[in-house]
Amino acid sequence: MEALLDAAERLLIQVGHAGVTTRAVAGEAGVNHGLVHYYFGSIEELMLQVLERFSRRLLERQRAMYAADRPFIEKWRSAMSFLDDDRRGGFPKVKLELQALSWNNAILRERLLRVHREWIDTLTPAFERGMRELGLESPEFSVEAIVALVVTFNEGIELERESDMDSGHRALLDAIDAWLTRLDRAARTRRRDGSPTPPKRSRRSHARARTR
Length: 212
What we know:
Elements: H1 2-15, H2 22-29, H3 34-40, H4 43-67, H5 72-89, H6 91-102, H7 106-134, H8 143-162, H9 169-193, H10 203-211
Helix pairs in contact: 1-2, 1-4, 4-6, 4-7, 5-9, 6-7, 7-8
């Protein structure tokens, strides 16, 4: 099974889902093609298990990174460096290939949604702690909204980079890093001086501030 999963993963990265056939996978793995259906039932199930296995490896890495006793800004930088690592490893290609297949396949779509939810469930508590650490708790942006923004932002970058489009990515990441650096410094100063976290502002007070 591992040999078949490894072979299908390599083919998804190298040639895409259209090139992942029973015979191609078996040939890549060096086994009889009948073993694909014996172990997985279908080529679609094999590809899904490739994605799920790949995702589990990366989620273990993410959970260990976010559980470390380090400032949130360092964890953010590690997460952004993983974008490059993951592309070199082929994860975005595997995920995007199966997402395209799932648009017209409800069963595939539901399995991909489970993978997506695992990422959301991993990021949500990590960002909740990070927002508290940086004093970013706000009635305008809940942790759910921030996580949705980050996930969508990451997936947009992955999609564009797979199409060799990277205009503005570095500038955007640098701008976010500079903003988080300012928040981190301010939070460290408050903790050192014993100052309280800035109070939450109501939607009404934000509206008044915008009209001044």
